[in-house]
Amino acid sequence: MGFRLVLFLCFFAAVLSGKLEELQLEPDQPLLRVPVSQEATVRCCYRCQDSPEVNWIKNTPTINGTTMPDLVNFTENVMHKPEGEKDGVTCHSLVFKSVSVNDMGLYQCKLKHGLLTFFSHGTFLQVYLPLEKTLNLSEGVKNSIITVEGVLLLMCVLIPGTMLLCKSKKVNKLDRKTEREEENIYEGLNLDDCNSAYHQIQRSIQQGPYEDVACCEEDIQLEKP
Fold first, then answer.
1. Strand order of the sheet with strand 40-47?
2. Smallest Cα–Cα separation from 58: which of 116, 99, 110, 93?
3. Which end of the chain has the lower number of beta carbons within 10 A, N or C?
4. What does pLDDT average to over the chain?
5. CB-facing half-sphere around the CA of 168: CA atoms within 13 A
């Protein structure tokens, strides 16, 4: 009994390894971003000598971070299209004629090959709402606005710089004029006269105020009564 079980397990393992070698999954597109109401195509490819049974699974993300797998129901808006074999690779497509926000999720191929079931890597379909333009401007108008902004920016740089330059020139002229006036004031002065006047002031300070009064008393003669 034990020997038969071992033989059965070895046979089953050999069958499984043969099936795994026969079916090889090709890489899928990880992400597909499509705006609302546009057409989208999700594709899965594989290499296999036989034709396995192909179904599509949608994994919808939930609030708690898990996914809920559901079998995709084919309608007029959602269709399954086998693309046939090319260079040993067989592909199947899931076509959405007009996607909606509810179609967002991870789509995988479910391949049933004999007793085994394979799942492709999957493609996440992301559906987004495109931004609406508040101002529908042509390219010519946009280029004109950019040109005007450049001119205004250049004026904001040049005008303050020119004003500062003119102000600095006026200050320099005023400084030069003040220096010339000071030079003209000292040109008319005689240094010898200034020195003599300075020495006379120093003498009067050193002799004191009463010395002049004594000199004056000698010159004055009082009248007798």
1. 24-25, 40-47, 89-96, 78-86
2. 110
3. C
4. 77
5. 6
